[in-house]
Amino acid sequence: MPELLVPWDGAAPRRDAPLPVASPDSPDHWLDLDFARAFSESMVRPWADGWFRASVEGAEHLPAARGAILAMNHSGMGWPWDAVVFMHRLGARHDYARAGVARGFALPFFFTLPGLGPLIRRTGMWPARFDELFRLLGQGELVLYFPEGVEGIGKGWRRRYRTQPFHTSFVRACVRYRAPVLPCACLGAEAMNPLATNLPRVARASGLPIFPLSPLQLALFPTWLTSMFFALPTRLRYVIGAPLMFRLDEATATDADYRAAAEELRRVIQGMIDEHLHAPAPPVREPLPASGPGPFVYPWTASDQALAALPWGWPLLYLRFWNAYQAAVPPSGRVGAATYAPHAIDTLDEAALLVPWGWLLPLVRHRRELLG
Fold first, then answer.
1. Is 290 part of any domain?
2. Based on the domain organization, do 309 and 261 belong to the same domain?
3. Domain-terminating residue out of 259, 276, 293
4. Maximum Cα–Cα distance for the chain, whole Å?
């Protein structure tokens, strides 16, 4: 066992005083479990099951005590499907109960985007800032954290399956709250967007964390910018290790100690990647929610199935789900079985997404509503 990492002793992590739901700083303020369940089962599951064939091993290691960090390697050179699919799998395993929701981080920039901002808030995402990690652990949250940060998802094809240096903020948070850290390895995400390279200067100019360029983007982006969410089909395999804890004292630990502890965990996760990379994955069938699909699941039509096979069809499917959910489940209540009548692509907003640069039309028309 590495010098600064020991097996978790099972003690419950320390907690801060709970914040009222009415407070914007409360983790429950934006979270909408009904919406998160509907989105996960309607939109994420079809891709997680068929496109990414995702499986989770080691779920028995998830601690019963609330307040822990799931530390995972990051990759993909594009939209973070490794995080989205993993959060879906965890939610489904826990029947989307509040205690089983993993909170992921996204750059604050994404919370300001029309359409995307309301989605990630309502599904449990949180702004990626140093103090917010402490806030979430102090409130007893299960946090999905990528210690490599942007350097991980943007490391490119040549450095695939090689973990980048870890940040130390998660070590400091775990030490302060005596919270366990679960090492997690994600395999397969590197193949989502192979042969890609990052253009850091363009990324900084556009405000994006990375700006990937690959044969896939060159073929699709000049005319179909809505294909930014597209990924090649690959198998996502998640392996969760046994919970560990850092043997550090906040009162005496130095910056060098935190860096050494982060490096030891990086070596643990790298070892998990190397061990499972070429090993056959067990035939794991991911469970459905125990209580059924919930109050609403978007009813895919034949045209929706066709859209799922088109790179620029993925955001159009999300738009159709969003409109369907708002029509079937009014904000005034979540009572009863929600219904929705599928329809052809006959609205101006939906048809616009099939036209090059047409994504600008619904964005401009509904910017205020989408940001609400």
1. no
2. no
3. 276
4. 65
Q: Which of 80-94, 255-269, 272-286, 344-358 has the lowest mean pLDDT?
A: 344-358
pLDDT band for 181, please (50, 70, 90 cuts): very high
**Residues spanned by the domain of 334:** 302-371
Does a structural domain hold residue 296? no
Query: Are 95 and 290 contacting, i.e. CB atoms less than 8 angstroms apart?
Result: yes
Q: Higher-confidence residue: 202 or 141? A: 141
Q: Which CATH number is 175's domain given?
A: 3.40.1130
Residue 119: CA atoms inside 13 Å, Cβ hemisphere, count? Answer: 19
Reading the block at residue 253, the tokens are 């630990």
**Is residue 60, in this structure, part of any structural domain at all?**
yes
What is the separation, in whole angstroms, between the first and last Cα of the chain? 49
Q: Which of 259, 68, 64, 60 is nearest to 182 (CA)?
A: 68
- Angstrom CA distances, 134 to 129, 179, 260, 351, stand at 9, 11, 20, 44
**Number of domain units in the chain:** 2
> Is the alpha carbon torsion for 153, 159, 162, 164 positive or negative?
negative
**Taking residues 266-290, what's their average pLDDT?**
88
Asked whether residue 19 is domain-assigned, the answer is yes
The secondary element (H helix, E strand) that includes residue 364 is helix 360-365
For the ranges 19-23, 66-70, 100-104, 351-355, the lowest mean pLDDT is seen at 351-355
Say if residue 160's pLDDT is above 60: yes
